Amino acid sequence: MFFRDLDGNLRCGLPDFNLEGGRVKKWAIKDLSYFIGGRDVDLPDNVWDLEIQEAFEEWEAVADLRFSRCNNKEEAHIVIEIGEGEESHFDGAGGTLAWAYLPPSDSYNGQLLMKFDIAEFWITAPSQPGILLKNVAAHEIGHILGLNHSDQDGALMSPHYDKNIAEPQEIDDISRIQELYGNPNKETIECLLKKKKKREIRREKRREKSAQRKEGNGESTK
Ligand SMILES: [Zn+2]
What is the pLDDT at residue 214? Predict the structure, then answer.
């Protein structure tokens, strides 16, 4: 959950607390499923889904965890919804951006909810005005996995929103998640790298195409 603090910075609304007596909160299982129950219209559905998927993959790349999308809300471990206004504990544009629950025990095997405020303007590139969906999703997934806030500036789990931080960082995040779930296995990392490469190639092609289209349009108006 993010809100604007007294200095005007966006921060997560989850209070900075030390887990009572260092009590561990985590899942009992390492294969977790997620269900996307709603999307903001700021982004096409497939783009929204891809940003969420990439946020999960960032955690998969650094810990012994696997996430899969599931189409049955009842069976999902993680439910991702959108909301608006007071009934969803949101407050209009700015302020609180999203929120998520932490596992209530050290061997949880139920369902947890994450919600995004549709009053925000969700974006996918830092050059656009708005809030980066992947960055906020990755932070909230950290809470879902059992991480509270980091007191390290520059960590993904720092309570402050940072458009340049979209993945778990060497400072703090990675060691903390590995302490809970262990290191990722080699095959997972290789598979993720391949996926990432393919996606980058596709993105590059899309960029080239849209640049060509713009050029084409430019000529036709002369
Ligand atoms: Zn937070």
Answer: 63
Reply yes or no on whether 54 is catalytic.
no
> How far apart are alpha carbons 127 and 22 in whole angstroms?
40
Domains and CATH numbers, the chain: 2-184 (3.40.390.10)
Question: pTM of this prediction?
Answer: 0.85
Instruction: Please identify every stretch of the chain with a pLDDT value under 50, giving residue numbers as ranges.
Output: 1, 18-20, 218-222
Kindly provide the residue ranges of all beta strands, DSSP E only, lying in the chain, ordered along the sequence.
2-4, 10-12, 31-36, 66-69, 78-83, 98-100, 112-117, 122-123, 131-132
- Helix then strand count (H, E) for the chain reads 4, 9
Ion ligand 1 — residues with CB under 5 Å?
12, 14
pLDDT in tens, 121-136: 999 998 999 999 999 9
- Residue 171 CB coordination number (10 Å): 15
Query: Among 20, 140, 187, 190, which one carries the catalytic annotation?
Result: 140
